[in-house]
What does this fold into?
Amino acid sequence: MPHSDDLLWGAVGDISRFAALLTMAELGLADHLTQGPLGSAELAGRCGAHAPSLRRVLRELAGLGVIRSAGPDAYELTERGAPLRSDVTDSVRSSIRMLGEEGFWYAMGMLPATVRDGSSAFVKRHGHVYDYLANKPASSRLFDDYMTARAIPFTEGLANRYDFPENVTMVDVGGGKGHILATVLHANPTMRGILVDLEHVTGRAAQTLAAEGLADRSEVVTGDFFDAVPSGGDVYLLASVLHNWDDEEALRILRNIRQAMNPGGRVLLLEVALPDDEAPHLGKDIDMRMLAIFNGGTERTRKEFATLFAQAELALSDIVELGSGASLIEARPR
It folds into this structure.
């Protein structure tokens, strides 16, 4: 093999390593190994796999340190592999399965074609990602699990690190099933919440808030944030919303919020704020997925957020890094 940069050859190997982890996640190997070591033939029988093929994948997984040898042709789960279990709070199993889902895998493989003409090859083949998921219930459940796991650092950071004023109303714009709003309301007992989203989502949001005992402090509204958002809010939250849209559409959302908010109100974004320089950042990896799957969806730099806010008569006032690539971005009226 010719000498080359370790980073480049590492990237070549990454696809094989990811494929092995995807196989582990799809077959539920970590769940099968939870109770203790298993021989490869027995493990293959439990997960419905071809034993000789599985044996080769186990060899790769042992090299990654997520399993280890536990005797002749037997393996056990390691601490490093534990997050691949489906029954742990920090499980990454659904996230890996989602990234290896047929359409998403196609999208990443077709990234060169997307870059050539500036239009997502995924969208050309499958349409908008949410329409695609609506027609594939199993993939949609995976996506929901993936987004729930992805939202954990955002949600915990918002609830634990942002100082909300007393007796305010927060409007969760595009609030989905209501998990983020519920977390914030529990952490701020004097706050009231309004969740606005499309009709096919709001029923589940109302159920979530009721199950959390928050029905008396919350309201669920059906609406399209491109048309309008509920007025009279003190805090408007957009959690992983703007990155789905290009600047023109993102600006429409922000202008609707600026028009609806109370004087002295604020906008909070839970997004990825990319560095303005060339420093490595998890958000740049995520941005490749946004480029591949959406037409116009993008992660933005701090400077790009500031420019977008200014066009909506808002001013960037603070950015708090929450870890795991998550950022809490605050803007206030200019």
In short: Residues 26 and 97 are 6 Å apart (CA to CA). The chain has two domains: 6-84, 153-277+292-333. The mean pLDDT is 93.
